[in-house]
Amino acid sequence: MSQEAVIAAALQTLDVFIHTFNDGDARGHCSTFAYPHVRLASGQVRVWQSIDEAIPQMERAMARLREDGWDHSEWDHRRVIQIGESKVHLDVQFRRFRADGSVIGMFPAVYVVVDVDDRWLIQCRSSFAP
Fold first, then answer.
1. Local confidence band at 126 (pLDDT 50, 70, 90 cut-offs)
2. Under a CB-based contact definition with an 8 Å cutoff, are residues 54 and 48 in contact?
3. Which of 113, 112, 76, 114 has its CA nearest to residue 92?
4. 0.85 cut: is pTM over it?
5. How far does Cα 73 stand from its chain's mean position?
6. In what order do the strands lie in the sheet with 87-97?
7. Where exactly are the structural domains of the chain?
């Protein structure tokens, strides 16, 4: 697979990640993760061993965000930091918005996207998002 194809596959995974999040589709969102999945945020390290463990936690997180006025998120940028045949490190930044378009917050992060049996999935996320 060429570097361009690897990058395209990783970015496609991030597209599905944010679209399923915005749609409130916890199962679809968690399907973009490789397991075990690691998230470093809010001063905590969370490790989800399986999709069945991740879904209920993601459902609760989505509900909390909606209660706080969150409507959707958008990427500000997605830049490749490093690339290999089966792994891509990305410097990303996203913003969370209310329904009226006002910004809740802007959050830089690093995502690691890996090839698992010809599926590109997010293995690890480290962000400054709560």
1. very high
2. yes
3. 76
4. yes
5. 11
6. 44-48, 33-41, 119-127, 103-116, 87-97, 72-83
7. 3-127
Contact between residue 73 and residue 91 where contact means Cβ atoms under 8 Å apart: no
Q: How far apart are CA 16 and CA 22, in angstroms?
A: 10
User: Can you tell me the distance from the alpha carbon of 127 to that of 75, in angstroms, rounded to the nearest whole number?
Assistant: 13
How confident is the model at residue 105, as a pLDDT? 95
Q: For residues 30 and 17, what is the distance between their CA atoms, to the nearest angstrom?
A: 8
State which H helix or E strand residue 78 sits in: strand 72-83
Kindly indicate whether the domain formed by 3-127 is annotated with CATH number 3.10.450.50. yes
Show Cβ contacts of residue 55 under 8 Å, excluding neighbours closer than 6 positions: 26, 27, 30
Measure the CA–CA gap between 28 and 19, rounded to whole angstroms.
9
The pLDDT tens digits for 59-76 are 999 999 999 999 999 999
Q: How far apart are CA 1 and CA 12, in angstroms?
A: 15
Helices marked H in the chain — which ranges?
3-22, 26-30, 51-67
Say how far apart CA 41 and CA 101 lie, in whole Å.
25
